[in-house]
Amino acid sequence: MSFKKWFNERVPIDPEFFKAFSSEPVPDHLRHWWWCLGGTPMYLFMVQIVTGILLAIYYIPSVDHAYDSVKNITENVNFGWYIRSMHKWSANFMIASVILHMIRVFITGSYRKPREVNWMVGTFLFVITLLIGFSGYSLIYEQLSYWGLTVAGNLLNAVPLIGSVLSSFIKDGDAISQFTLSRMYVFHAAILPVFLILLLVVHVALMHLLGITTFFFNEKTRRKTFPFIPDHLFTEIIIAIVLMILLTFMAIVFPAGLEEKANPLITPAHIKPEWYFYFTFRILKITSISAAVLIMGAAFFVLLLWPFIDAKLLKKKKTSEASTYIGIAAVFLLCALTLWECFALFLSH
Fold first, then answer.
1. What percent of the chain has pLDDT over 90?
2. Which of 20, 193, 251, 320 stands 20 to 30 A from 46 (CA)?
3. Across residues 137-145, what is the average pLDDT?
């Protein structure tokens, strides 16, 4: 009996499935890298997984040893500084690419019928990506991450009806303790990545079932397509290589550093979050904690349900470009709040 026959009897996979997958037509506009932002976070997430596993070997999720274990990784473990820096920068690039991907989908109206559910799945993916970044930042247990976690607990406590329960669950009490750090570690290393992977599978499956939104810019490209393998795969490989070079450059030139160890008795003069939460801190500073929670909660639900809001707008006027203008205005507002907080932190130093 030949090996091929023996293998096919035990693993009865239809080769036509792989043949159909590899020859799946891809719209011509995806030849350009700026239309391929959906695959970029997936690659960066894989970098996160690999570097995260390597960091977990040496990291100790304990209030007494967390900071020292991170310091040990940075200063003593062979190439530990590089792995940690790669983990940090891939997280930042992943969040940035998810934001850019959502902006592109919004501005081009790719969330419209029949892709409303996939937009909602993508919104939850965006939120989980932010939570993974925040929980990872908290694990360093330095001054800024400790007090950033304290502010997050206060924000949760201000959530109507369930705020006190959420805050108590995360912190296991009124103050940050060993249980808080342990829960952040479990969320960062297990629960959130599992949810992200499950939602990612659903997101890609829906995209495959519904097809990719096609854009054409002239009559020549209206019906023009190219095969997924090798053409599109080759594009993704080039993007991955460029990203790896960029990540390595950032890790070497701007390696991950360490602030002072967390001290519950000393409040920093200026609490500094990661850049993707600058807008949150700015809203918090110009309003109140209750107002900030309500604003961010309302923004999330508007974003989540936007395909249905957009459908209502289009019913009134089919040629309306209101959604595009609203999206552009929202992006400018987000950038303005982020830059405002960035300059405020810069001037404070």
1. 51
2. 20
3. 91
Is 37 in contact with 239 (CB distance < 8 Å)?
no
Contact 133, 274 (CB under 8 A): yes
Residues paired with 261 in a beta bridge: 142
What's the whole-model pTM score? 0.89
Query: What does DSSP say about strands 225-227 and 25-27: parallel, antiparallel, or unpaired?
Result: antiparallel
Domains in the chain (CATH in brackets) are 22-265 (1.20.810.10)
Measure CA 160 to chain center. 26
Cα–Cα distances (Å) from 98 to 44, 105, 106, 166, 336, in that order, read 10, 10, 12, 26, 19
Residue type, 283: I
Inter-residue contact 120 to 105 (CB < 8 Å): no
- Give the closest residue to 31 by CA, choosing from 192, 210, 220, 224: 224
Give residue 15's pLDDT band: very low, low, confident or very high (50, 70, 90).
low
Give the list of residues 6+ apart from residue 332 with CB closer than 8 angstroms, or none: none
- CA trace torsion 327, 329, 333, 339 (10° rounding): 100
- Coil, helix or strand at residue 305: coil
First-residue to last-residue Cα distance in the chain: 75
- State the Cα–Cα distance between residues 242 and 111, nearest whole angstrom: 29
Q: Give the whole-angstrom CA distance, residue 86 versus residue 94.
A: 12
CB 126 within 8 A of CB 98: yes
User: Which residue shows structure tokens 């990506």?
Assistant: 129
H or E segment and range at residue 209: helix 192-210
Q: What number is the average pLDDT over the span 225-237?
A: 71
Q: How far is CA 273 from the centre of its chain?
A: 16
Contact (CB, 8 A) for 275 and 92: yes
Return the HEC string of 268-290: CCCCCCCHHHHHHHHHHHHCCHH
65 three-class SS: coil
Under 8 Å between Cβ of 194 and 126: no
Report pLDDT for 268. 80
Q: Report the candidate in 330, 276, 229 with the shortest Cα–Cα distance to residue 97.
A: 276
Q: Are 60 and 66 in contact (CB under 8 A)?
A: yes
The Cα 169–Cα 148 span in angstroms is 17
